[in-house]
Design brief:
The chain is an alpha+beta fold and about 650 residues long. The protein contains 15 helices and 37 strands. Among the domains are: about 100 residues, no CATH class; about 120 residues, Ubiquitin-like (UB roll), CATH 3.10.20. The strands form 14 sheets. Strands 31, 32, 34, 35 and 36 form a five-stranded antiparallel beta sheet that branches. Strands 22-30-29-23 form a four-stranded antiparallel beta sheet. A three-stranded mixed beta sheet has the order 2-1-6, with helices on one face. The termini are far apart. InterPro entries: Glycopeptide_resist_protein (IPR052913), Vancomycin_resist_VanW (IPR007391), YoaR-like_PG-bd (IPR022029).
Length: about 650
C-alpha cells in the first residue's frame, strides 16, 4: 500500500475570528437582561504575552472559560454575595438601639402578672383582710361569710339596752325592739367580684373593717315603748268633784310627766344600732288644765246641789229625785278652759223615775232581732214618747245653781226609734253566717271585763258597706262603766290596765268575722302567740289608739249576737251566707326564736310562761259551689318570744 501523505490540520475555528488588538477591550453590546459582562472574563486583566513559537507553530489563543447556561428572563437569578458594608463607628456614650423598649415590655408583663395572678385567685370571694366587727370573712364565698356572721354575731345581738327613765330602770331586750342582723346589707359593703388593682393591693397589704348592718322593726319597738310608757307615765290629774254617797269629795289637780313616745323609739333604736348598753330618757312635764281654786269653788257648788231633793213634773204627774239619786248622776269635771262644770247624766237618773212620768208602753223601741229556736225573729220598731233627756240635763244643771228652785218641769217629745222596722227587715238577716268561742279562767278580774264588753256589743247591727270599729262600738273601758284593772300584754309587757282582757274578746269577734268572709280594715296581731287562740288569727286592742276594724262588704246587714258564761264568751254573726265555706291555710313556723328566762324582784310582778317567737303566714280561701272563687293575700304574723318570768317575791 502506498504510504499516505500527511494529513492537513483542520481549520482553526478561531482563525476566522479577528483577535482583539492589544490594549483594547472587546466591545459587547446588546447583551440580554441579567447577563453580566463578566462572562467574558476579567476586563481589566492585561493580555497574556504570546507564547514563543515552537517549531514554527503559531501560538494558540487562551483557553475559553467553561460555558455557562444562558439565564432565562422568568428565572430568578441567584443573588450574588452581599456587598461589604463599612462598619459603624464606635460611640461609647450612646445606648444600644432596642434595649429600652424591651425593658419596658418586660416590666409591663411582670406588673400584669403581679396583679392578675392574685386577682384571679381572689375573684368570687370576699377580699382577704375583710372583717365585720372583728370577724374575719376574707377568702370566703358570700354564703360562707353569711353563715359565719350569723353564727358569731348572734351572741352580740342578744345584748339588751337598759333604759333609765323616771327614776327607774327598765330593760329592753333585742326581740322587743325587733332587732335583726341584715346580712345582705352587711355583705353588700364587702367586695367579692373581680377585684381591681387597688383592691388587690389593699387585700395584700392591709385590712378592711366593716360595721354590721342592723335593722330595728319600728312598729314592734313602738309597741314596746307603749308598754314602757304604761309603766313610767304619770299623766296629769285634773281636778274634779265626785260624790261618795251624799258627800262631795274634792280631787285636786296634780302635775304629771309623760314619756315622749317618738323620742323614746328613736333613742332606743339608736342605742341598739350603736351598741350602747345604757341610755337615759326623760319625762316631759304635763300640767293639768284645772286649778285648785276652781276645784274649791266646785266643791261648794256640789254641797248645795245635794242639799235637797229635786222634783220632776209633767201633766199632773211627778217624780222625785232624792239627793242620793242626784249625787249618783252628778259630777263636776274639767272643761277645755280649765274650769269645773257640773255634768248631770239624765238618762241614768230617768231609769228609776221615768216610768212615773211616761208609761213604759209609750216609750219608743228600736227594731231588732231575737234568736228563737236558732232562728232570727224580727222585733218591730215602735214610735213613742219620752222625756227629752238632753233638755232635762240642761234644766237640772240650771236648777242646781239656784238656791231655791228645786222643781224641774220635764218636757215630753215624740221619740222616734233609732232603727226602724223597714231598715232592719230588708237587710237579709236570716241565717247564721259564722260563730266563734274562746275560753278563760273563772272568777278572775279579766273575766268580768270580757263579759261586760260582750253585753255592750250584743245586738249591734252593722249596715251594708259600713265599717265597724271595736273601740267605738264597745266604748272606753272605765271604772265608771264598771270595768276593773286586769293584766294585759301591752307592747310586750304584762301590765295591769282598766279593761284588761279586751284583746281576748276582740280575738273572739275577729275569728267570727274572719270565718264569715268579711273584709279586714285595721288589725294588730298580739305580741305573743297564745296557744288557745288560732295561730295567726288574734287581735290586740287598747283604747283609744289600737283598734280593730272590719268592713261589711256584703249587700246585707250583719247582726252581732253575744253570749257569755263564767268561763267562755261566744260571738255569732247573722246575715245571708255568701260562701259555702271559708278555709284557712297556715304555713309552717319559721324564724323560730327561743325565749329567755329571768327573775323579777319588782313589786307587782306578774309571772309568765316562756313562749318561743316565730313567723307564720295565714291565707284565707273562699269556696262557692264546691270550687275556690278567691283567696286573700297572704297575711304575715311575726310573734316575738315571751320571756319566762319568775317573781322573786313569791308570786310565781
Amino acid at each position: 500500500m502506498r504510504r499516505a501523505g500527511p494529513i492537513d490540520s483542520p481549520t482553526d475555528p478561531f482563525a476566522s475570528v479577528p483577535l482583539p488588538k492589544r490594549g483594547k477591550k472587546p466591545k459587547v453590546d446588546g447583551l440580554p437582561p441579567g447577563v453580566s459582562r463578566d462572562i467574558f472574563g476579567p476586563q481589566d486583566r492585561p493580555d497574556p504575552e504570546p507564547a514563543p513559537a515552537s517549531g514554527g507553530t503559531a501560538a494558540l489563543p487562551p483557553v475559553a472559560p467553561p460555558p455557562q447556561p444562558w439565564p432565562m428572563q422568568d428565572q430568578a437569578q441567584p443573588p450574588g454575595p452581599p456587598e461589604p458594608q463599612p462598619a459603624p463607628a464606635y460611640e461609647p456614650d450612646t445606648p444600644r438601639r432596642g434595649l429600652l423598649p424591651t425593658l419596658l415590655v418586660v416590666a409591663v408583663v411582670l406588673g400584669l402578672a403581679a396583679y392578675l395572678v392574685p386577682a384571679v385567685a381572689m375573684s368570687g370571694q370576699v377580699l382577704p383582710g375583710t372583717r365585720v366587727s372583728g370577724i374575719d370573712i376574707g377568702g370566703l364565698t358570700i354564703n360562707q361569710a353569711a353563715d359565719r356572721l350569723r353564727a358569731q354575731l348572734a351572741s352580740r345581738l342578744e345584748r339588751p339596752v337598759t333604759v333609765n327613765v323616771g327614776g327607774r330602770e327598765e330593760v329592753i331586750q333585742p326581740d322587743e325592739a325587733g332587732l335583726e342582723l341584715d346580712v345582705v346589707a352587711t355583705l353588700g359593703e364587702a367586695s367579692s367580684g373581680f377585684p381591681g388593682p387597688g383592691q388587690v393591693w389593699q387585700a395584700l397589704t392591709g385590712t378592711t373593717e366593716l360595721e354590721p348592718a342592723l335593722t330595728v322593726d319600728s312598729s314592734q319597738l313602738t309597741r314596746s315603748v307603749e308598754g314602757l310608757a304604761e309603766i313610767v307615765d304619770r299623766p296629769p290629774k285634773e281636778g274634779r268633784v265626785a260624790f261618795v254617797g251624799l258627800r262631795p269629795q274634792a280631787l285636786m289637780p296634780q302635775e304629771g310627766a309623760l314619756l315622749d313616745r317618738q323620742a323614746a323609739v328613736e333613742a332606743i333604736g339608736a342605742a341598739f344600732l350603736r351598741s350602747h348598753d345604757n341610755i337615759s330618757l326623760s319625762l316631759a312635764p304635763a300640767a293639768p288644765k284645772s286649778s285648785e281654786e276652781t276645784v274649791r269653788q266646785a266643791l261648794a257648788d256640789a254641797r248645795r246641789a245635794v242639799a235637797a231633793p229635786l222634783t220632776l213634773t209633767h201633766a199632773g204627774r211627778s217624780a222625785t229625785l232624792t239627793p242620793a239619786a242626784v249625787a249618783a248622776s252628778l259630777s263636776y269635771v274639767s272643761d277645755a278652759s280649765g274650769g269645773l262644770q257640773p255634768r248631770f247624766d239624765a238618762e241614768k237618773a230617768l231609769k228609776s223615775v221615768e216610768g212615773g212620768l211616761v208609761g213604759a208602753a209609750n216609750r219608743p223601741r228600736d227594731a231588732t232581732y231575737q234568736i228563737v229556736g236558732d232562728r232570727p225573729v224580727l222585733v218591730p220598731a215602735r214610735q213613742g214618747r219620752g222625756v227629752d233627756a238632753d233638755r232635762l240635763s240642761r234644766d237640772v244643771v240650771e236648777a242646781l245653781g239656784s238656791p231655791s228652785a228645786r222643781t224641774v218641769p220635764v218636757t215630753l217629745a215624740a221619740a222616734r226609734p233609732r232603727r226602724t222596722t223597714g231598715e232592719v227587715s230588708g237587710l237579709g238577716i236570716k241565717e247564721k253566717v259564722a260563730e266563734f268561742t274562746t275560753a278563760f279562767a273563772c272568777c278572775q278580774p279579766r273575766a268580768g271585763n270580757i263579759r261586760r264588753m260582750a253585753q255592750a256589743l250584743d245586738g249591734h247591727l252593722v249596715l251594708p258597706k259600713q265599717t265597724f270599729s271595736f273601740n267605738t262600738a264597745v266604748g272606753e273601758p272605765t271604772a265608771e262603766a264598771g270595768y276593773v284593772e286586769a293584766p294585759q300584754v301591752v307592747g310586750g309587757r304584762l301590765v295591769n290596765v282598766v279593761g284588761g282582757g279586751g284583746s281576748q274578746f276582740a280575738t273572739t269577734l275577729y275569728n267570727a268575722v274572719f270565718a264569715g268572709g268579711y273584709e279586714g280594715v285595721e288589725h294588730t296581731p298580739m305580741d305573743y302567740h297564745t296557744p288557745h287562740y288560732p295561730i295567726g288569727r288574734d287581735a290586740a286592742v287598747l283604747f283609744p289608739g289600737r283598734d280593730y276594724k272590719w268592713l261589711n262588704d256584703s249587700e246585707h246587714g250583719v247582726l252581732i249576737k253575744t253570749t257569755s258564761t263564767d268561763t267562755s264568751v261566744s260571738v255569732t254573726l247573722w246575715s245571708t251566707r255568701r260562701y259555702d265555706k271559708v278555709e284557712t291555710v297556715v304555713s309552717d313556723r319559721r324564724e323560730v326564736r327561743s325565749f329567755r328566762r329571768e327573775v323579777s324582784k319588782e313589786a307587782g310582778c306578774l309571772p309568765t310562761e316562756g313562749q318561743a317567737g316565730f313567723t307564720v303566714d295565714v291565707t284565707r280561701v273562699f269556696f262557692k259551689g264546691g270550687e275556690e272563687v278567691k283567696r286573700d293575700e297572704r297575711q304575715v304574723t311575726k310573734y316575738r318570744p315571751q320571756a319566762q318570768v319568775t317573781c322573786a317575791n313569791g308570786q310565781g
